[in-house]
Amino acid sequence: MLRYDGLVMSLINGYSNSQLVPYQRVKQAARFEEEIVNHLTYNGGSFNLTVFNGQGYSWAITVKYIRYYPLANVWDEDTSANWLSITPTTGSGTGVNITCNYGYNDTIYERRMEITITSNGTSFTTYAYQDENPGVDTTPMDVSIGSNAENACVAFINEAGRLHYYIKDGYTWTGADKLYVNVEGTTLADTGWYSNGAWARYWNKSNQTFNGLTQCEEDNSEGGGGTPTPDNKTILLVQDNPATSACQTWNNTGARQTFYIPDDKNWTSTGVLYANEDGSTLANTGWYSNGTSARLWIKESSSFIDSASCA
To answer: How far apart are the C-alpha atoms of 50 and 32, rounded to whole Å?
Structure first.
């Protein structure tokens, strides 16, 4: 923020936003310590603002969302949007830290947020511009959806239950790290169990990760020919409970055992843990550690549900 002889002028992304306010009035009301928020990444994240409030007046924050409407070829307010979560939105006192969490942009257009703080009859606005989603090269994938792994597998048998989704080019169904609903690869699929007839995977939209992998009992995939198995690699782990014990047990080299994870994953990113190389048998439930971190694997849900550092 730049101050000139009793006036306040903010520069927003290189453009002059001549919101000129008498200096005495600024002193008597709450204002943002920072009035410029540059471009935010399309993947989502967070940033902070600080409220300066020399006179102790109460303040409140509101957000206005601006998006592009391609059919009308206009930028306009989106009154139904909720891309930004702000904590807190009201308060008093000085030096208050405001945490702003922003969501995933699933469009190929930039979007904007106007964050306004109002106090003692005076308003100040800061702006956030979130980058457009560049998308990815995708490959179509016919999958079915179910309330659990078994239902998703069975649903694939009925061709009417198969839906068109997309994964990144160069990935197989068992190795894919994202699931999209559009060919541009910008809009993530909703959370749930999905199956290609051979394998069911649990997709978590909020975390943007697959958290489970379950083999279907029969091969319902196109063309038959037996159930395919994913390419796996070995990993040395110890299994003990709780996490601290698993970490400590790693020092006993005789306790280390061979397990298996997908070729394109590492210990912290894998969503599945196998007891055998062909991936047909899941590891038993328990805490596992590679000496650096421990993770809690649940066989019944085919997912990791907790983790801890060994430091």
So the answer is: 6
Centre a 10 Å sphere on the Cβ of residue 58 and count the other Cβ atoms it contains: 13
pTM exceeds cut of 0.85: no
Encoded amino acid at 143, one letter: V
Give the whole-angstrom CA distance, residue 230 versus residue 262: 7
The answer to whether residues 301 and 293 touch, using CB atoms and an 8 Å cutoff, is no
- Residue 194 to residue 209: CA distance in whole angstroms: 13
pLDDT digits (tens, 9 = 90+) for 107-156: 888 999 999 989 888 888 888 889 999 999 999 999 999 888 888 998 88
H/E element, 150: helix 149-157
The secondary element (H helix, E strand) that includes residue 118 is strand 111-119
Class of 2-130 per CATH?
A: mainly beta
Please give the backbone phi and psi of residue 10, each rounded to the nearest 5 degrees, phi first: -110, 145
| Structural contact between residues 51 and 117, judged by C-beta atoms closer than 8 angstroms | yes
Query: Where are the chain's structural domains?
Result: 2-130, 138-215, 232-309
Q: From CA 159, how far away is CA 161, in angstroms rounded?
A: 5
Kind and range of the H or E run holding 42: none
* Mean of the per-residue pLDDT values of the chain: 80
- Residue 13's Cβ-side half-sphere holds a number of Cα atoms within 13 Å equal to 11
